[in-house]
Amino acid sequence: MTTPAYRRLSVEERRRQLLEAALSLFAQRVPEEVSLDDVAEAAGVSRPLVYRYFPGGKQQLYEAALRSAAEELEQCFAEPPEGPLTLRLSRALDRYLAFVDEHDAGFSALLQGGSVVETSRTTAIVDGVRRAAAKHILDHLAVRDPGPRLRMTVRMWITAVEAASLIWLDNGKEPPLAELRDWLVEQFVAALVASAARDPQTARVVKAALALETGEGAVAALARRVLPVIEDAARLL
Amino acid sequence: MTTPAYRRLSVEERRRQLLEAALSLFAQRVPEEVSLDDVAEAAGVSRPLVYRYFPGGKQQLYEAALRSAAEELEQCFAEPPEGPLTLRLSRALDRYLAFVDEHDAGFSALLQGGSVVETSRTTAIVDGVRRAAAKHILDHLAVRDPGPRLRMTVRMWITAVEAASLIWLDNGKEPPLAELRDWLVEQFVAALVASAARDPQTARVVKAALALETGEGAVAALARRVLPVIEDAARLL
Question: What is the ipTM of this complex?
Fold first, then answer.
């Protein structure tokens, strides 16, 4: 839906337009290299108008853009609680990685820190997204009261996904998104299985999750590929 | 070795003494809450003397303390290239986690970012430690030219270890250090094995590493604990 040039935008529409212009600039350049003039130009408005909406200047605009991106990111995680867990995770990761792909430099700058616009507030926004991601995963695992080991496993995997996303952007988005997604799903399966070895709650979660898998699913494919690599380890048992 | 009170410290000794006082304060409080007066008091010297050694004030002192901690941390990774890899990793993690334990709040503040004393220089110091850790691991895996998937696996695990360390400090250092260490070793084994499923180089590394393991080692213990959890998955094959 395009907005006719002669119609005045509502306050909310204007605000959204400025945030989108800012987000697309932050996706191409680190925050330090984006000025309010750039944002005004990209949105086709005057600099004073940008200041009218964001009197706190670039810092306020950056935080508002970040909040809007965080909301969008949290929507990536929503997934109906049906079918094999690896398939649900795979779909959520598809959306998450598309988000990383789109926001690119802005995503890196934010997670890598050290940016002049990074504050305890921006850190809190990012941590909120991490917490939301962990909650979604634990909900899908149908765990009401996650113990420390299961929570640590999930949080470690989320951090590892962030690290992988940054490396992926650094590597010119190689391997292709679908390959990275499958590999991240497999890493999650491996992390959970290893934790299950020491934690009865995680073991129950893994057994329940395995019961939902099919011979065509991600776990079956992983198992078929892993067996030849570890067959020699049988001598250790 | 204690320094007699009447002997004047050499420049290098004094500098070291001030850095140690700073590091122990940063271990108890976030950098924002440590003043140069606190450092002077902890070291039993005057504030002007602290300024003489660190004319750049707290920022310079913080960066120097960080550099000194980074060197200490990198020494944790040194391990002779002998015996099962899980045992070498376990010993290095023992030293790393003792470092985390000792530096406590300062370690958290640094990795969590958002601190007023965090700059691109401090971020570069921390990244240097991460790169050193990755290099040590790849050396032990005897990989001359690591491909993208093996590198990504190693870097993801390093990030996951950092996340686990922060969670561990947050959780009042529970579980006990030795338990966390064993679990992190197992997570590394799991991550490598899962990557081996898709990457021939990682598969070779895993096979070579398994050949060094014994029936009393970490991999054997992990395998014995994991098998009962995943036995139902045999139907997927």
Answer: 0.89
